[in-house]
Amino acid sequence: MKPPVKQSWIERAIEIRRFHIQQLKDESNWTIEKTAKVLNRSIGSVSQDLLIASWLRTHEKQLKRCDSMRDALAWIRLKQKEIRLEEVDI
After folding, report:
1. CA–CA separation, 12 vs 59, rounded Å?
2. pLDDT tens, 40-66?
3. What's the CA gap between 80 and 30, in Å, rounded?
4. Which helix (H) or strand (E) holds 13?
5. Which is nearest to 36 in space by CA: 11, 57, 19, 56?
6. Helix, strand counts (H, E) of the chain
7. Predicted structure pTM score
């Protein structure tokens, strides 16, 4: 029997998003706090995974180039800052 394979940070983010969305469909007042409690994770880590998973939907190629979750979050925050600055210039 092979040992379980550790999930990559990308796979984990996608799975947490799937779980969270399914819970929202089943229970309209579901929260990130509830997801964190069920998964025995911090609210911040679940929030980061949900952020990454949402950006993966439109920026998968760029995020898959990141070596780590930390790099991915830094890239996302940079892009968010650029978007905010563009909105100010309009």
Report:
1. 17
2. 999 999 999 999 999 999 999 999 999
3. 26
4. helix 9-26
5. 19
6. 4, 0
7. 0.85
